[in-house]
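Action item from last meeting closed. Structure (140 res):
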């Protein structure tokens, strides 16, 4: 998707999403310690309550474990596997979700590839709207 509000990646509507983390390789490989990160909350200063796989998380990250690529693709010489994470949240209109292999276990994405998604909960009423008339205008 094109960059939207300074955010690049894939975009989702709503406050629930199944994030599919995938990769492929020419040889079997394990990407260790996949971290799923949550940031760029909108509106600025909001505090989301984030659940992953039905459990409320503490902080802004979730350890999804290792991603093992061991399944041969139909055309050969490639391997591909996926890991899914079910995410839901409330308390913010939008947030960025991204994942990376934290190969040195320091919590910092400092090399390799990462996946980015930006979410927009268009069903939520913006907190800056204060009158019933202004809220009704949003949904005409």
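Sequence:
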């Amino acid at each position: 998707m094109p960059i939207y509000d300074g955010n690049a990646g894939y975009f989702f509507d709503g406050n629930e999403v199944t994030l599919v983390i995938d990769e492929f390789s020419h040889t079997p490989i394990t990407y260790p310690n996949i971290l799923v990160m949550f940031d760029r909350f909108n509106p600025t200063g909001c505090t989301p309550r984030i659940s992953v796989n039905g459990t409320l998380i503490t902080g802004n990250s979730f350890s999804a474990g290792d991603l093992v690529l061991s399944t041969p693709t139909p055309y050969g010489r490639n391997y591909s596997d996926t890991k899914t994470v079910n995410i839901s949240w409330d308390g913010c209109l939008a947030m960025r979700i991204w994942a990376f292999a934290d190969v040195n276990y320091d919590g910092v994405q400092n090399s390799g590839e990462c996946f980015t998604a930006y979410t927009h909960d268009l069903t939520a009423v913006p907190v800056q709207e204060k009158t019933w008339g202004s809220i009704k205008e949003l949904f005409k």
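Note appended to the action item: The chain has one domain: 10-138.
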